[in-house]
Amino acid sequence: MKTKIRFYFAMLLSAFLIFSISNTMASEGNLYSKKNESKKVQQAIDTLNYKVYKGEIKDAKTNEPLMFATVTVQGINVATVSNSDGEFLLKIAKDLPVRNIEISYIGYKNLEIPISSLKKNKNIFQLEPVSIPLSQINIYPQDALFLVKSVLAKTQQNYSLEPNMMKGFYRETIKKNRSYVAISEAIVNVHKASYKQMRDDQVQIFKGRKSQDVKKMDTLLFKLQGGPNTSLLLDVMKNPYNLFSEDLITIYDFAIKSITKINNKVHYVIEFKQKENVDLPLYYGLLYIESTNLALASAKFSLNLKDAAEASRMFIKRKPAGVKVTPTSADYLVNYIEKDGKWYFNYARGEINFKCNWKRKLFNTNYLAMTEIAITDRNEENIVRFKGAVKFKSSQIMSEEVNKFADVNFWGEYNTIEPDQSIESAIRKLSRKAR
Q: Using H for helix, E for strand and C for coil, what is the string for the chain?
């Protein structure tokens, strides 16, 4: 039993963020002419075949921003996600016969807005927290483990049995203490394999860019291996061995914590953590399970990092002598969206904090590595598997595969996650340093 558990555990570790650490620093930046760039941007704006809307999503009672809220265009498979400041940017083709957008967030009432009422900028939307009368709950289950097993057993009933082609926006960032030192972004094409097969999902980098800082020679450079491939592996319904395999599920404790609403549907909130007598560093977190069809709508989970030595071996592939690197937190989020009775992968995010302790240095250095992917479009036609050099491999590092930041209107018609102010400032700062 223990050997089999350790095998799954090794697979689980390789599924997430893996870092190479070296003493060599790359020099990349934004090396463009402002005059020429302004002309290009104006030309692009004059010929736009899509409309752009910017806004913020907030809690109606506290006025706090709601991060990672889903913004969808009703009637088509176009969507985006709000950033850590609750801000969103949505692009809609002018020739699409659409009327409304819909905003959804866990524990809040959905908000439907006519597109005709949207302004180009400064749209403020407030979502109302939802309370659920017990009269709305037909059956309140007592056995949380049975619920989770039912979710896994109903995967093929609730999730797509046909492959899908998806378009998404992927971003990875690295911060040293409070400053960004690397940012990479890409529009990606995704071949999302059927949930009835163990066939891997595939990624193709359609368009990407990066910017990195130039530091002293003794500064560490973190390289995120696998890029968007690792984010797709957070789809725990497609890759259940990453969280709850048949063997691992028995060494977790599950409890029904509460009920809430997502997209106006009742969801059970299941809390889980590894059993007290299990010494492997596993996960703890929350599962949001739709009560009628028992589909997983969202999962928030973190890795138990009490064993610092084991945690370091998990994430660090290579490091220079004289430095001790210790992960201090590892947090993950995955969201699904329902369409016509089927659930689809919609958003995933991973954040890992590291503490670096150099010999002969008084202070530690803290690093935060983040990756996120948002699916912005989906279709069931022209399904293709990527081959050869076109396919992004799990061994590749995205920052080595894309070009430097250049064009201000780089993303054009493609939906992306609105960068928060700190990322925009970081891009400008990294660009000035490179120049």
A: CHHHHHHHHHHHHHCCCEEEEECCCCCECCCCCHHHHHHHHHHHHHCCCEEEEEEEEEECCCCCECCCCEEEECCCCEEEECCCCCEEEEEEECCCCCCEEEEECCCECCEEEEHHHCCCCCEEEEECECCCCHHHCCCCCCCHHHHHHHHHHCHHHHECCCCEEEEEEEEEEEEECCEEEEEEEEEEEEEECCCCCCCCCEEEEEEEEEEECCCCCCCCEEEEECCHHHHHCCCCCCCHHHCCCCCHHHHEEEEEEEEEEECCEEEEEEEEEECCCCCCCCEEEEEEEECCCCCEEEEEEEECCCCHHHHHHHHEEECCCCEEEEEEEEEEEEEEEEECCEEEEEEEEEEEEEEEEECCCCCCEEEEEEEEEEEEEEECCCCCCCCHHHCCCCCCEHHHCCEECCCCCCCCCCCCCCCCHHHHHHHHHHHHHHC
Answer yes or no: is pLDDT of 2 > 50: no
Rounded to whole angstroms, how far apart are CA atoms 36 and 39?
Answer: 5
| φ, ψ of residue 321 in degrees (nearest 5) | -70, 150
17 pLDDT above the threshold of 70: no
pLDDT at 245: 75
Amino acid in the structure at residue 43: Q
Can you give the pLDDT at residue 116?
A: 94
Burial of 154 from C-beta contacts in 10 A (0-12 / 13-18 / 19+): middle
Which residues have CB under 8 Å from 142's CB, separation 6+? 256
Give 276's contacts (C-beta < 8 A, 6+ positions apart). Answer: none
Question: How large is the average pLDDT for residues 144-150?
Answer: 92
**Judging by beta carbons within 10 Å of its beta carbon (0-12, 13-18, 19+), is residue 118 exposed, middle or buried?**
middle
pLDDT in tens, 365-424: 888 889 999 999 999 888 989 988 899 998 888 888 888 766 667 888 888 888 887 777
pLDDT in tens, 320-359: 666 777 888 999 999 999 999 999 999 999 998 888 887 7
Domains and CATH numbers, the chain: 2-29+139-434 (no CATH), 51-127 (2.60.40.1120)
Q: Phi then psi for 39, rounded to 5 degrees?
A: -65, -40
Residue 261 has pLDDT above 70, yes or no: yes
Q: Which residue has the tokens 């250049």?
A: 406
Higher pLDDT: 257 or 406? It is 257
Tell me how far apart the alpha carbons of residues 234 and 15 are, in angstroms, rounded to a whole number. Answer: 8
